[in-house]
Each structure stands twice: as structure tokens, then as C-alpha cells.
Amino acid sequence: MAFIDWGIVVVYSIGMLWLGYYFSKRSSKSMESYFTADRSLSWWVLAFSAVATYSCAGAAPAFTMLVYNSGLLGNWWWWLPWVIWMPIVAVFWSKFWRRLNVVTTAELIEVRYSGKTASVFRGIYGVFMSFGWAIVLMGYVTGWLGKAVCPIIGCTELQLIIFSGIIVLIYTTVGGLLGVAYTDVVQFGIFMVGNIVLIPIILHDAGGFNAVYDKVLALRGPGFFQAMPPGGDLVGMTLVALVIQGLFFAASPSGGEGFTAQRFMAAKNEFHAQLGQIFNAVLSLVIRVVPFLFLGIIGAALYAPGTVDPALIWGLLVSKYSFVGLTGLIVVAELSAYMSTISTEMNWGASYMINDMYRRFIKKDASERHYVIASKICTVIMLILSLLVAHYLVKGMMAWFLFINSVMVAFILPLAWMRFFWWRLNIYGEASAIIAGIPLGYLIWFPWGFSEKPFWQGFLLLFVAGWLVILIVTLLTKPEKKETLINFYKRCQPPGLWGPITKEFSVDERKRIKTETSNDLIDCFLGILLCGGATVIMTSLFGKHWVLLGVSTLVSTVAIILFINRWRKKGVFKGL
User: Fold this and answer.
1) What distance in Å separates the CA atoms of residue 323 and residue 576, rounded to the nearest whole number?
2) What's the CA gap between 527 and 555, in Å, rounded?
């Protein structure tokens, strides 16, 4: 890179450090300030922060790779479950988590379950989420950073992750969740601008989009531009597996739990949480993907299959067509994507260790200042461990893409519904899923070779095994105390199979919750139509499927009008 490009990187880094410092005073008041931003985040901050977290350093190369490999169908590997889970989580789980008013999802353990076992397992759960889920996710994101940026600037992956890690570590430890959320907003804007600017430059050199389209059509055939499944590898049981994943993905750390739930818990109220998640769905499914549909199609026109590593297509396009100044902007865009994700996961992972292990079992009565300092130290340790995971374990990006987004969570997915919709689930059923989930998923996917087999086989094997284990363990052990379940139900007000518990409530209260649930189910259906239709609109435009474009536009328009009108009547917008 030229001197100007490095100057852009330096200016960006200073800007992120300043933003972290700007929020340092507010975030350091207490542990709750550090991890939930004093529950002060507005819906639009929640949305941009969430989509920035999803848009990790792997987003640009991964989305481009998926299009290059499989055409417009490629991104349906994640679109299909996401158009289902995102509106479901917006309608149900966002308000569940906000109503619980907890700091971490691990805190749910002692709210939902009772006794000494629940108390001990809360700590185990916190360690698992910190040093299991969070560090693996951070390692995966860091692995993509090297794939994306090293071909552009010519450094080693180790040099790059050390430099970027130091910057993100400083502003995250200083600014807490509040600093993370607002830097996310800025970073998502930089990420989008950097990638959008590249498109007209490449298209001009390639003779325009029509010339690119015709060349890809000649090289790959019309199947490359198929707008929606079924097709390619997305047929039969694979589609079934992805739909199931979408229905239950609220149990995933990147779905309705983990750092997504942390955003809900930091919202001003449940209405901000709900609207933020719906806006996040539009940003995540449509807006952020558009540049990479262009770049994937252009890559398919320029590089024949088998001639390059698909994971490097995005980096090769940048290296070939960028110029002084633009290169620095694109590198900053990728650093923004990486830092927005890694900062969230660092803060989220540390929240478990401090709130659910350190404060709960090791040092119970220290000052808030002490806990904030401990949180910052834990954040440093987590980053170091994730860099080691990235450097030594994360290889073969397509296999890791499916592992992180699907296989890693398959075993625990039944918990998404059981926790909130079935009174009988107990701490032993919960523990059996959490403890077995990650090791069994890794064992089946990598050492046992299921990453080389059709995707649905490994996923459904884990999903069915999860159901069996959770149900058998739960039914062979005693139920939770009735008082605990009643208190949980009062705080959360979930729908589902709560008959023995709802008897304690008045007829009017039960009727109100039943009516709310019926309305929520309709909203979920409309939300899925909206998200699915918006995604098909986008692929129809790129594939030049005009009839499908008209149908999907009509469906989306009707769905959004009905959805907005229903939420207006429920008072969601007044609640903002």
C-alpha cells in the first residue's frame, strides 16, 4: 500500500480510539453500565450495531465466495434460515430478554431453574459461553480477516491480527458496550462505502454489467442466475435442515441469544428491542449483501472455476482494480467489519466470566470499579486466546462457515423453544445440551468427516440427537420448583405449554397472554413474508427474473403494510 493508504488506516484507528475514550466515563460507572450500556440504547443503534456485528471481516469474502461458487443461490445457505429466525426473534425473543432484565443470558439459568444445581451450572454456562462459544467465534472472524486483507497489503496473517487486535482491544476495554455500539454504527457505514465504491470501477473496466452478465451466462449457464431455491445443492433434505435451523435459531449465540440478546437487554424498553431487530433484519438480509452480489458475479466472469481459491476472490478483485486512496478505504472497511464484530464478542464473552462466574462465585462483594477493571482484564485474555485459535485452528473457510453458522449450534437448538415454551424443561436437560453441544459438533463435523458429506446429514444428526438427549434427561429427572417457574412466568410471560403454572393466574391474565400470542404468531408470519420477499426482490433484479420480481414486490408490500399497521395498533411505535 502507498503512504496515503496507510495514512487512511492510521486516521481510522485514531478515530476508533477516540470514540472508545468518549464513552469511557459513562461505561465505567458500574458492571451493568459496562455490559448493558445502562439499558439506554435506541432501536436504530441496536439495528446498526447488530448488522455491523454480523458483518465481520469474513462477510465481504464469504458473500463474494458464495456467489462465485454457486451463483445467486449461494447466499441462500444462510438467507433461508435467517429470513425465518430474524422476524421470529424480533416478535418473541427480543421482548422475552428485555422483560427478564438480566445482564447475561447465563443469568437466565437461576431465573428459570432452581436449587444449588442451577446456581453451580450458571457459572459453568458462563465459562462455556466465554471460553467455548465466544472464543471460537472470535477465532473464526479473525481467520477471515487474514483471508480478506493480507492479499491487499502484503503482510502476514499474524502481523495483521496483532495490529488490529491491539486497536480493538483498547477502545473496547475503555468504552464498554456503549462504546462498542456507537463505533459499530460508524464502522458499518465505512464497511458499506468501501465496498460500494469499488463496484463501478470494476464494472467500467469489464464493459458494464450487461457484458459481465452475458459472459457469466456463457461460462456458467442460466442456473448461475437462479433467484431462489430449490436448485443446486439446496434441494431436498438440505432445505429441510435449513428451515429447521431457522425455526430454532433463537438458541444460537448469533441468533436470539448471545450477543444478539445482549443488545435486547441493553434496549430502552421491549419496543426498542423489537423494532431494532426488524430494522436489523432489513439491513442484514438486503442492504449489506448488495455489493457482494455484484462482486461475486464479476468474479465469476473474470476467474474460471478451479483457477483460484474462491475464498480469495474478493481480495483478488481489490488487488487488481483498486488504486491509491481507495485501497486504504477498502482496508479500513474490512478492519471496520472485523473490529465491529470482535469488539462485540469480546465484551459479550467477558460479561459471562465477570457477571456469572467471578462476581457470583469468586468475589461477591467488591466495588463496581473493581468489577469494571476485572471485566477489562478478562477482555484482554479472551482476545489473546481467540488469536491463537485463529492462527492454529481456523483452516478451510467454507467448512468453517457452515460449522459456525449451522453445525456448531445444531445440538442446542431445541433449547430455543423448550426454555420459554415448555414448563417441564429442567436444569439437567439444559445442562446436557450445553455441555455436549460444542465438543460433539466439532467431533462430528471435523474429525468424523461430516464436513465432506452433504450438509444436512451432520446437521440433522446433531439436531435429532439434541432433542433426544434433552427430552430423556429432563423426563428422567425431577421438575423445577413451582415457585421458581411462577416467578419466571411473571417476568417473561411466555406462550406455550405452561398449563400447571398458568393455573395460578387469573382468567383475564391468561386470556390476555393467549391473545398476545395469537397476534404474535400472525406478526411472525408477516415478518417472514416481508424478509423473504425482500430477499427475492434483490436476487430477481440481479437475475433479471421480471415476473418473480413483480410477485415478490407485491408480497413484500402487502406484508409490510399489514405488519406496520398491526404494530401501530399494539402501541409499539408509541412505546418508542
Assistant:
1) 45
2) 11
Q: How confident is the model at residue 68 (pLDDT cuts 50, 70, 90)?
A: very high
In this structure, are residues 103 and 355 in contact, taking their beta carbons and an 8 Å threshold? yes
Going from the C-alpha of 285 to that of each of 292, 362, 443, 467, the distances in angstroms are 12, 42, 31, 29
Q: 423: exposed, middle or buried (C-beta count within 10 Å: 0-12, 13-18, 19+)?
A: buried
Complete DSSP assignment for 10-34: HHHHHHHHHHHHHTHHHHTS-HHHH
**pLDDT 10s digits, 391-437:** 676 555 555 666 666 667 788 889 889 999 999 999 999 999 888 87
Cα-Cα end-to-end distance for the chain: 46
CA-wise closest residue to 373 among 177, 179, 174 = 174
Residue 335 Cα to chain centre, angstroms: 18
Contact assessment for residue 253 and residue 129, using Cβ atoms and an 8 Å cutoff: yes
Alpha helices by DSSP H, listed for 303-361, are: 313-321, 326-352
Phi and psi at residue 304, to the nearest 5°? -70, 150
Distance CA 160, CA 447 (A): 29
Q: CA-CA distance, 373 to 165, in Å (whole number)?
A: 19
Helix count and strand count (H, E) for the chain: 28, 0
Q: What pLDDT, on the 0 to 100 scale, is given for residue 428?
A: 95
Instruction: Give the separation between CA 541 and CA 544, rounded to whole angstroms.
Output: 5
**pLDDT-derived band of residue 30, with 50, 70 and 90 as boundaries?**
confident
How many of the other CB atoms lie within 10 Å of CB of 10? 12
Q: Where are the alpha helices (DSSP H) in 207-235?
A: 209-220
Helix (H, G, I), strand (E, B) or coil at 496: coil
Mean pLDDT of 345-366: 85
279: amino acid identity, one letter? F
Helices (H), 221-308: 236-248, 258-265, 270-285, 290-302
Give bridge partners of residue 234 from the DSSP assignment.
Answer: 231
